[in-house]
Amino acid sequence: MIGTRMAGCAAACMAPGRPERSAARDAALDRVAAAAGQSGWTIATLRDVAGPDADLLFPGGAVDLVEAWFDRSDRDMIEVAHDLDEPRLSRRVRAVILLRLETIAPDRAAVRRALGVLLTPGNGHVLARTLARSVDAIWEAAGDRAEGVAWYTKRVTLAAIYVQVLLFWLARGDDMAAVTAFLDRRLARVARFGRMKHRLLSGRAA
After folding, report:
1. COQ9 C-terminal domain: from which residue to which, for each copy (predicted)?
2. Residue numbers of the domain that contains 149
3. What is the pTM of this model?
4. Is 119 exposed, middle or buried (0-12, 13-18, 19+ CB in 10 A)?
5. CA atoms of 159 and 132, how far apart (whole Å)
6. How many domains does the chain contain in total?
7. pLDDT of 22-63, one tens digit each?
8. Which has more confidence, 202 or 169?
9. Which pLDDT belongs to residue 201?
10. How many Å apart are CA 137 and CA 205, to the nearest integer?
11. Alpha carbon of 177 to those of 70, 80, 91, 181: distances in Å?
């Protein structure tokens, strides 16, 4: 149920803006992420680890804090993915997703708590923006150059896959072999559907 809601939100908001970015906010986010797995994504945690005035950096409160942290994770993923050397786009997407999970692995408890904040009633629009931005960042990191309908189709498709994999990782992230196999099964299913669609359309055209 949660997975369906998250995927639906991501699919519904494929052109998100981005949170404010600054060195001061990034430094505070790094400190909070290290503590949020235990203390939660709260303004009290923010003040404890980043100073009594740190809340001024995130006027939107805990939701602002969480959205900004996911945006920072997106940027970290793109930076790490610069060294990928894989000619096929589908394999680059796979590699980028695994890189992202590897990058946030030390903060798995913080990720779980952060999603709890975004899944709180009333925060659905922020959840949509956050997931849509992450999916778009995965395609950007993979070097996708699609435009028009293909751009949207790819992001809607990947949103469903990414949400499923993220939830599986939260439950089984201590076993990356299982996570990788789960991701590969999701990608293979999409690939099979794509080949079937191509054959059907080719037959119709004939």
Report:
1. 128-194
2. 2-205
3. 0.86
4. middle
5. 7
6. 1
7. 999 999 999 999 999 999 999 999 999 999 999 999 999 999
8. 169
9. 44
10. 35
11. 24, 21, 17, 6
CATH of the domain at 30: 1.10.357.10
User: Over 50: is that where the pLDDT of 204 sits?
Assistant: no
| DSSP for 122-177, written as a single string | T-HHHHHHHHHHHHHHHHHHHT----HHHHHHHHHHHHHHHHHHHHHHHHHTT-HH
| 88 in Cβ contact with 77 (< 8 Å) | no
Share of the chain above pLDDT 70, in %: 84
pLDDT recorded at residue 15: 56
Which residue, among 6, 117, 125, has the nearest Cα to 66 in the 3D structure?
A: 117
Q: What does the DSSP 8-state code read for residue 52?
A: T
Q: Which two tokens stand for residue 28?
A: 């505070």
Q: Provide φ and ψ at 42, rounded to 5°.
A: -125, 160
